[in-house]
Write a structure and sequence with these properties.
mainly alpha; 0% strand; 83% helix
Length: 111
């Protein structure tokens, strides 16, 4: 019974790994130097994103004017999130530093 379970589990694992390998082979490759460096969904400026949307969706000038404020709002939200995350990382680093200093002080007191 255990051998059958092991064989079944091994087969499922092999099948899963094959699927992952095939998905990686079929993944789209970066096309330009910026995409190779930043990844497929690398950061774009508002103007770059508007140009991209204009080409893909064939936007009219009026539609471009309507979309620009949305892109600016989206950009501002992303910046706020990034700032929040960076602040969180700084707080975590400060806590670790404080803990480390406390541990060193405690060791010195015991010596």
């Amino acid at each position: 019974m255990r051998t059958l379970f092991t064989a079944g589990l091994t087969g499922m694992l092999a099948l899963g790994m094959t699927g992952i390998a095939m998905a990686q082979e079929n993944a789209p490759q970066p096309q330009g130097p910026n995409q190779a460096r930043q990844g497929i969904h690398g950061p774009r400026s508002i103007d770059q994103e508007l140009d991209h949307l204009t080409k893909d969706l064939e936007l009219t000038p009026n539609q471009q004017k309507q979309i620009r404020p949305l892109l600016e709002q989206h950009h501002d939200r992303i910046q706020d999130c990034s700032t929040t995350i960076q602040g969180s990382h700084a707080e975590t680093a400060a806590r670790r530093s404080t803990r480390s200093a406390t541990k060193r002080t405690t060791k010195l007191k015991r010596s």
